Amino acid sequence: MSDASAFPLASRPRLWTRGTALGGIAWNLFGAIQLVGSVTETRDSLMASGLTADQATVMTGYPAWMTLAFAAGVTGGLAGSVLLLLRRPEAAGVLALSLAGYVGLWIGDAIHGVFAAMGAPQIIILSLVVAIAGALLAVALRQDATS
């Protein structure tokens, strides 16, 4: 089935919405790779990749709820982006859960010393992740409003 026949003309997503959804899918696939790495890395492997002993200890000492928040952000972002591409009304709710997961992870990084150990780059990266999750949600909400 071609893209044109998959969506009736009136309900075909706008080009920028499709681009945003595809970007969200790619971004969250990258996040999924990071998530897998975060649960499989060891203190030694992190130190071998250039982290200090203190940084590696902090990064492997995440409480379980932070890993769950990360997983909620990534899986919600990926599923929500697919739903956004398909113009499903559930996209906004799923992307809201993703945003909540990433905000929880940001708070966890602040509370558990990750930002202190890793410095400004970690703050910037995770803040960007939260901003992208918020932007994906905004696009989904706008799509719902214009549907």
Detailed description of the structure:
The model has no long low-confidence stretch (mean pLDDT 89). The chain has helices at residues 3-6, 15-40, 43-48, 53-60, 64-85, 91-111, 114-118, 120-146. It is elongated. 81% of the residues lie in helices and 0% in strands. It is mainly α. Helix 2 runs antiparallel to helix 5. This is Major facilitator superfamily (MFS) profile domain-containing protein. The chain crosses the membrane at residues 21-40, 64-86, 93-117, 123-141. Keywords: Membrane, Transmembrane, Transmembrane helix.
Give the overall pLDDT as a whole number: 89
How many DSSP H or I helices? 8
The sequence of SSEs as H and E is HHHHHHHH
Helical/strand content category? mainly alpha
* Unreliably modeled segments: none
